[in-house]
Design a protein that fits this description.
Elements lengths: L12 E3 L10 H28 L6 H30 L3 E3 H34 L4 H4 L2 H17 L1 H9 L16 H5 L7 H34 L4 H9 L2 H23 L5 H26 L1 H10 L6
Antiparallel strand pairs: 1-2
Helix pairs in contact: 1-2, 1-11, 1-12, 2-3, 2-11, 3-5, 3-6, 3-8, 3-10, 6-8, 10-11, 11-12
Protein name: Olfactory receptor
Membrane topology: Multi-pass membrane protein
GO molecular function: G protein-coupled receptor activity; olfactory receptor activity
Amino acid sequence: MPSFNESTAYPPVFFLTGIPGLETSHTWISIPFCCLYAIAISGNSMILFVIITESSLHEPMYYFLSMLSFTDLGLCLSTLVTVLGIFWFNVREISFDACIGQMFFIHGFTFMESSVLLVMAFDRFIAICNPLRYAMILTNSRIIAVGFAIIIRGTTALVPLLLLLKHLSFCRSHVLHHSYCFHPDVMKLSCSDTRINSAFGLAIVISTAGLDSVLILLSYVLIIHSVLCIASKEERKKAFGTCVSHLSAVAIFYIPMISLSLVHRFGKHAPPFVHTLIANVYLLIPPVMNPIIYSVKTKQIRKAMLKVFFVKPS
């Protein structure tokens, strides 16, 4: 395993990690990873295609779903080359600039996905709590503005964070613990003072994913209150049913994120492969599961997909 204990060369070259202890089985391990990437790419591409081409899906709810599929697709493609490069060809080297670029896309799409999930919670809140004003509030121009705001929010905060990283010195081992460049992982290899980087990184996480999760929770508290005020049991069931897909998407996004954070903080004595597996689950499970959830749970999406394959929906 390559390492540089006293290297002061700049820019440094980092070495990514596959599955520690299972290097001889990387070819076999690559098979389920290839399947997951194929499902994620094809599933999200199909969601985007049917929403763009099917006029009946040109509604706010499905526009936001297309944003979710776009971010999932970006998140998936951000790691595909390095992960499969390790499994297939044992290509572990990555230059510092390439590492910075990969971090920008990984963290950018992660923050954008968090924002999209928040916007989707707001969409469900308006649809259930104020349905008569739904079309008036969520106009096409506002949805476009929200899309641009999500992109700007997800990327602008990363620029100073990554610029701060470029000014660090790396004189310890250059071996990363993941199959892709992850900001906390890279920062740990620096021999410079990283307190500013850590504080700024924590502030970004709190102001994006942290704030979004609190607002999503608040949205559902208000949604539940409104639904419980509905007299008809059948209407309550229908209202809750419209939220199931979104709640599932929220769970499969935040649970792996929290798990990865806990492993980084408290899992110092855990086997090395645990860190790598959870890190890959964190970035692969949402892109894989979201198209499946919305295809199964959303009748309109399912009908549109069947139409694409020339199958008459029942």
